[in-house]
Amino acid sequence: MKVPSLHGRCFEALYAERALREAVIAVTAASRDSALAVLQTLGAALPVLDPAIDAVLVYVPDGEELRCAFAGGGRAEYFRDARLRLDGNSLPARAALAGQHVVLERGGAVIPTDRAAVAVPMYVGNLLCAVTYAASAGSAIRARGSVIGAAAHAAVPYVLARDREADRASATYDALTGLYTARAFRDTLHQELRAASLGRSITLALWFIDTDGFKGVNDARGHAAGDRVLQQLGSILREHLRPSVDLAARNGGDEFCAVLRSEHKSGAIARAQTFCDAVRACDFGVGLPVTASVGVAAFPYDAAAASELFEAADAAMYHSKRSGRDRVAFPDGRGSFTVHR
Fold this sequence. Notes:
It is elongated, with a radius of gyration of 28 Å. It has helices at residues 6-30, 35-49, 91-98, 144-172, 182-197, 214-221, 223-239, 265-281, 306-322, and strands at residues 55-62, 65-72, 83-85, 102-103, 116-124, 127-136, 204-212, 247-252, 255-261, 291-299, 328-331, 337-339. Helices cover 45% and strands 23% of the residues. It folds into two domains: 6-170, GAF domain (Beta-Lactamase); 182-339, Reverse transcriptase/Diguanylate cyclase domain (Alpha-Beta Plaits), CATH 3.30.70.270. The strands form two sheets. The chain has a six-stranded antiparallel sheet with strand order 3-2-1-6-5-4. The protein has a six-stranded mixed sheet with strand order 8-9-7-10-11-12, with helices on both faces. Strand 1 and strand 2 form a beta hairpin. It is α+β, with helices and mostly antiparallel strands. Helix 1 packs parallel to helix 4.
């Protein structure tokens, strides 16, 4: 048997060290993009560290199970989103339970064709954030130390990216209705109308919605009932918007907004009336009438900037309320407002 020379072993060690360092740098950089990007980068790095690896699965804790959040390699694709019991005999479950890496010896392979595998729990402090499973259908995994090191180092970037995404989501979406927050909605509208200042042709309309009778619901039925009304009102609003085209938000309290992209003023007014009618017809289960007063303004007809568009739609909404509530109003182009019907 040929014994590698000391020079050859040193070269291999230096190569492995450099490859691991590059993998750690790449995974850390990926955390600026997303948690999934971290897992994808790790999945691409492990076969570089050891060419025998032809399947990488990363599982995340989900209650009493581990859910596959990433699958890399042709043999692994079938296992994307698959689940393993945490108290089972699979290698990832055993690694999670033991709190240390586990190698394939006496069963526990995730993919039936695996001949060699290692499962590495990824911890940040005492928190198990994921388990990486690297496998080979052919030869043994020789660079096991590098694989374990890369997976362990990926834990912190993964958690940082995941937490950053959660922070962005909480800042973007209203917790009660799932609609955009007022700030995220306004930022989006400002960005779209900024493009108009650069010469892009843009047509859109804004609905400003106030819930009639909401204070009465809160006073008579309590805040839990009021929350259910707002959630249902948000659902009705979604139903009257075009998915992936229009955008809805909870403006705060019992007020809502919606942007109707590529919609002219007349169409936006007619659609607002249909929404208003649907709210009136809905049984909110509180035994009290709930309706909506809607103000409609359109760009570029009623405003030249986002702030002006908000002011115009807001003023139109207040005209709806002053005119008796449960109706739609809009700027008439002569410095006043008109009720649709």
